[in-house]
Amino acid sequence: MSDDRAERIAGFIEALRVTPGSKVRLDRDFDPRHKAGLKKRDAAGLLRTGVDLLAEYQERLAAQNTYGVLLCLQALDAGGKDGTIRHVMSGVNPQGVRVSSFKVPSDEELGHDYLWRYAQRLPARGEIAIFNRSHYEEVLVVRVHPELLARQRLPESARGPGVWKRRYREINDWERHLEDSGFKVVKILLNLSKEEQRVRFLKRIDLPEKNWKFSAADIRERRHWDDYQRAFSKMLSATSTQWAPWYVVPADRKWFARLCTAAILVHTLMDIDPQYPQLPEADRKELLVAKRDLEREAPVGLPADPYTARHSSARDERTPGRRAGK
Ligand code: AMP
Ligand code: MG
After folding, report:
1. pLDDT in tens, 148-174
2. Which CATH architecture has domain 5-272?
3. Helix (H, G, I), strand (E, B) or coil at 85
């Protein structure tokens, strides 16, 4: 991979990254309609390049089997999480990716500490895991609706003042622990405008095949728009860290959100720079012995090693003195 390409991708996403320690006000600092001067027609080719790069890096990640990647995707309803996952991951080997969606917690989940259900879904080494909603719901929807905190059956001491500050610290510590263990955490907020959400909701109502995507609860949540914007701002200010940064991706244009998400994932993988394992000399010798055995089994008239024969026209790999078909 050329350094040049890596640098260009890093430059492209830099403006989306929340500087650790900075105080964010989402509506003032990030524009949901931003598109970095790009046109939709340019985006398709760029996204394809991103998807191809992801496939290549994912294969290396799996082969090296040392690091893992966790991508957390947060957004309000109709923010485009599902479509982004579908497009960005379209080229990767399904065996190397696990996608988990988090809904209202079950009774069993509420019977554990609040990070428990997310820990069950972490990537293994060599894997990319995507959280469609994530542990950040614990400082978003739960903060906006205090009755949800009451349902968590926490002891008095864990419910009192300072609960959100404490959760930010615990989440930062947890992600630090993951980073130390070889798991890179990267977090994306798909930043949608209120007007674009209105338009997307109406589309979901108007088109019968989209009706299933809409629920009355979505309208109820929309009434808390300002509370969510505040909760997002506080979360971004407190939990964008050197080891697990937040990116705020403009989401009013789906094509741009997908491109940014692909770029952020590619950048994360380039940073890991996973390598195919090199065989130790002794194992390599064993392979060459196996190769000779396999070559001796070649049917009459066929190349001893069809792969080498196909890839090196200069050499005649046919078994000497014999003809095909005999
Ligand atoms: P959706 O992703 O639109 O299918 O909806 C999932 C719903 O689950 C959303 O309304 C979320 O707010 C809700 N949800 C996700 N995580 C939590 C949580 N930890 N506590 C309460 N509600 C949650
Ligand atoms: Mg929903």
Report:
1. 999 999 998 888 889 999 999 999 999
2. 3-Layer(aba) Sandwich (3.40)
3. helix
